[in-house]
Every structure is written in C-alpha cells, then in structure tokens.
Write a structure and sequence with these properties.
The protein has 19 helices and no strands. α10 runs antiparallel to α13, α12 packs across α13 and α17 runs antiparallel to α18. It is globular. The structure holds magnesium ion. The site of magnesium ion has 4 residues, from loops.
Amino acid sequence: MSAEFETHLAPYAARSAATRGRARAEPPAVARSEFQRDRDRIIHSTAFRRLEYKTQVFVNHEGDLFRTRLTHSLEVAQIGRSIARNLRVNEDLVEAIALAHDLGHTPFGHAGQDALHECMKPYGGFEHNLQSLRVVDELEERYGGFDGLNLCFETREGILKHCSLENARRLGALGERFIRRRQPSLEAQIANLADEIAYNNHDIDDGLRSGLLLLSQLEEVPIFARHVHEVRERYPALAERRLIHETVRRMINTLITDLIAETRRRIAAAGPESIDAVRAAPPLVAFSDAIRREGDELKLFLRDHLYRHYQVMRMTSKARRIVRELFDAFMDDPRLLPTDHRLRAERDRPRAIADYVAGMTDRYAIKEHRRLFAVGEI
Ligand code: MG
C-alpha cells in the first residue's frame, strides 16, 4: 500500500516498504506510508506540544517573536524537506526525524540539559538525544497496546544523533552504528545538517532582534558580511529589519544549495545503490569545505557573542539552579512528586525524576520551583 508514495525515490533512499520495522508489529499503514504514520504520531504526541514552551536560546517569556523549540523544529523540517526533495530521498522520513529531534530537550535549552546531566552523573547521566528516543520509545502514553509511539527503526535511528559508547552498547541494533562507526540514512544526515542551518540562521535573527547582537559585529563574520553586502548593493535604502531578513534568507539559500551540490557530488563519487551502502559509506551529506569553514566561524561567533552574552548567562545560571534544586528536592523526598511520577520513582528514583524534570516546559519548571521553594506559595 505505502509503496505508491515512494515510487520517485532514488535507490539510496529509505523506503517504508523496506523498513527494518517497529519494535512491536502492527498492521500496515492505510492511506499513508509508514514514515508518514511516524510523523503523524510525533505531531500528536504530548512531548511535541510541550516544545512550544521550551527555550531555544531565549526563555519563552522574554518575547513573543523568538524561536521556541517548536518553531525551531518546524524550520528544521522545512529545510530538511527542501533538501530531501532535491536529492530524491524520503521527505516524510526527514520530516518525522526533524519534528522529533528535540522532543527530549529539557526546559531552558542547553543550560537545563547540562544541569540535569550533572545531577544524573552518578546514575548514568542525561543525554538529550537519548532522551528524545526515550520519549518516543517509552514515555509517551497514547496507545492501548504499548508504551511510546512504536516508531520505525529508521525514524529512531535518525532521532539518535549522538550517543555515548556505553549507552550505544545497551541499545542493541540501534546503537550498533556508534560502535561500528557507521553512518545513519541520508535522511538522518539531512535532518542533522538542516538543524544546524536552522539554528545558526535563526539565532542571528533572534540575536539581532533582542539587541544582544549588533549588525556591526556580525559584519565581521565573513558569511554574513558577504550576504549583507549583496543586499545593500541591490537595495541601498533598506530599513534594518528588512535588511536582516533579506540577508538571513539569502544565507539559508546559499547553505541549502551548497549542501545539495556537495552531497550530489559525494553520492556520485561513492555510488551507493541502497540504504545499507549509505550506512557503510563515509558521511555523504555535507557542505563544501569553503562553506563548512564559514559555518564554523559563524558558530564560534554566536558562541562568544550570543550564547555567552552576560544577559544570556544570567538566565543560564538561574536555569541551572532551578533544575538542580528541583532534582535535589525530589531525590530527597519523592513524596513531593505527582502520583504517576512517584510510582515510576519507586522503580528507579533518579531516572523517574530526570524524566519528570526533562519533560517540563520553561514556565512549568519555574512554577514548580516556586511551589516547592517560595515561602507563602502553596
Ligand atoms: Mg535542534
């Protein structure tokens, strides 16, 4: 049934008709492919709706126009699909992976994740990629017959972007590629770089909008300078906001076209005839060397001037404290946990608490912290 949606695909694309399957066998999808079904399950999940209130760089309440994990994930899906369509690989799979890739993110972005990892160090640590997998494999409670969303192997393979060797050994078939140093599908590789294109560009936009970054600073970053110069030549009298959008738009375009061209070149050179040949080949989805270098410069710039800006650092330090104090309070007394989490905590206290805290949105975490610590709040 689902093969009819995938007749146009290149031989090296992932096909849902040839999926390595779901952990629990289910009747075949009707009127959609297996990867479309995965995408639909992800969109209807609770964890997906929580992304709206989770930080990308700016905490949710700092402004209505900043990216959240939800809009970030949508941008990743859009960019990923454009690339996939050009390369004739499976757009539905790329979309499913993109929409799910951040499901395991803690509140408060990387600050929250680092804090939770610190708390969990004695108990096996906390990795947000692995947590995204945990959400779709175990934590979502939507089906009568099983925990999680029971997604296809290929979708899960794409969600698990990184993983420590120790965890890889516990994951069986899914962890194998980290041990054998093999690649995931092209679709997973595309979602990964679409993520990078999305955040580098929207962080420039959000950084400028917030006033933490200045145009004059960004003009010292070659890839931005090149594009802003082009825009100024073409439209000499453009207002700043429009100048920024026109520049970012062109940068995204440059990155996507470069990625497609370089990937085509690598595919032609390696000549993979199947998804398994893709897995055995070196990474095939890539930027050209010149664009890779420029992209790395941009990343460094954003790290030094945006992610480590003192105003961001203040929020970061507060976020760490909130996460740590929540974790410690629940560890000291699991009776403070809501009932279903308390029951889970009877089996594995630290992991149940990490799951609870990781699932919180920014504002829920702030509220929960206030409920536990503020004198005069109940
Ligand atoms: Mg992301």
